[in-house]
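re: ur question from earlier - yeah i can do the single chain one, its not a big deal. heres the input i used so u can compare w yours
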Amino acid sequence: MSIRAASNTDVPKISSLVTSLAHYYLEGSDGTLPSWLEDTLTHEAFLARIADTDYLNLVFEVSGLIVGYISLKEPGHLYHLFVAEEFQGQGISRSLWVHVRRQSQCSRFSVRSSVYAVPVYKRFGFLESGPAGSKDGVSFQPMEYLSEN
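and the output i got, formated as tokens:
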């Protein structure tokens, strides 16, 4: 098990992981992502984020398999945090979160959590920072984390 910086060669695996879990944002069960969300999950979109120095992108590997991914857009917006379903509940998301917090100079972090992931973020110390929202069938909960440091 290891956490390392994401690279361009990781993009197909990262894209596949995130796309396989994106349905957790949806309100309905039809599984159709709106085009504006799909556009952020393309190979090109992941390559752009990895190349952009405003983003910190890390992967969590188990036996060479990418099972977790986190992307932080400075200064402190948690853009993505995904863990493969079969590896959830094993502390991987927490490990990625702690790693990002240590690497970032931020004391305040924000996230637009899926409703599904709100309990995870609450365990990390995030608080709801506004009302839940919805756009084109995609539900989200704005949340914020303030560091004690």
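Residues 112 and 142 are 5 Å apart (CA to CA). not sure if urs matches, ping me
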